[in-house]
Amino acid sequence: MPLDPGVVDSVVNSNFKILAEQVATNAAAHQNRLNLIAESSIGQIVNRMNALDPAEAVSVGSVIKSDLPKALSELGTAVASIQQLLKGAQTTPPVTS
């Protein structure tokens, strides 16, 4: 006895609906997993940015306590003085009679 075409259509429609809902559910679940991964990654990046390595902290402290700023200032003064001397050496002296 052949199946009633109405029954076949009903089963096909039901199967199609189930498959379509599974695709939508899988897409939503996948998006949720991607959001969780993104949030976790951003959290780790922010933690790394905010964390200060002990060795880095020591080196920053030693630079602050060093005479580096004073040495750079003295070097800048010396360079400016040399530049002024070079400018003076480049000019031609006035002609005197």
Q: Could you describe the 3D structure shown?
A:
The chain contains three helices and no strands. The chain has a domain at 1-51. The protein has helices at residues 5-50, 54-65, 68-90. By secondary structure, the chain is mainly α.
SSE topology:
Layout: H1 5-50, H2 54-65, H3 68-90
Low-confidence stretches: none
Number of strands: 0
User: Judging from the principal axes of the Cα atoms, what is the shape?
Assistant: elongated
Number of helices: 3
> Level of helix content?
over 70%
- Roughly what fraction of the amino acids lie in strands? under 5%
Order of helices and strands: HHH
Q: Helices and strands: which structural class?
A: mainly alpha
Mean pLDDT: 84
Biggest pleated-sheet summary: none
Query: What is the multimeric organization of the chains shown?
Result: single chain
CA-based gyration radius: 39 Å
User: What is the CA–CA distance across the termini?
Assistant: 135 Å
Summarize it.
The protein is mainly alpha-helical and 97 residues long. The chain is built from 3 helices and no strands. The protein has a domain at 1-51.
